[in-house]
Amino acid sequence: MAIFVSGLKCCLAFTDDTIVFSSSFEQYLKDIQSLLDRFRLAKLKLPKKSECEFLGHWVSAEGIGVQKTKVACIQAWPFSKNIHELRAFLGLCSYY
């Protein structure tokens, strides 16, 4: 579900997450302030999160990292038997 803030579509709201995106850092600060104001008016409380999962990666204050389960899948991947399987494996590895 998209939420409109100040007439702009600047965030996506999910069951347990809200992602804010903006064209610049200055605009981001304005958009996040508007969003938090709307949360406050609706008497919503935000949980404190120190990290979250986004597109198969972990994002935290320390930076971006891969999920351990994804790395385990790569380590357990069976040996490629033909060029098609090898290309599929290399494509997966290049993403991580």
Report on the structure:
The chain is α+β, with helices and mostly antiparallel strands and 96 residues long. The chain has 2 domains: 1-47, no CATH class; 49-96, no CATH class. The chain has helices at 25-41, 68-75, 83-95, and strands at residues 2-5, 8-13, 18-20, 51-54, 57-60, 63-66. The strands form 2 sheets. A 3-stranded antiparallel sheet has the order 1-2-3. A hairpin with a 4-residue loop joins strand 2 and strand 3. The longest helix has 17 residues, at 25-41. The protein is elongated.
Which key terms come to mind for this protein?
96 residues; three-stranded antiparallel sheet; 3 helices; 6 strands; elongated
Q: How many strands, which pairing sense, and closed or not: the largest β-sheet?
A: 3 strands, antiparallel
Q: What is the mean pLDDT?
A: 81
Oligomer: single chain
Strand order of the largest sheet: 1-2-3
Report the C-alpha radius of gyration, rounded.
19 Å
Number of helices: 3
Layout of strands and helices, then pairs:
Elements: E1 2-5, E2 8-13, E3 18-20, H1 25-41, E4 51-54, E5 57-60, E6 63-66, H2 68-75, H3 83-95
Antiparallel strand pairs: 1-2, 2-3, 4-5, 5-6
Summarize this, please?
The protein has 3 helices and 6 strands. It is elongated.
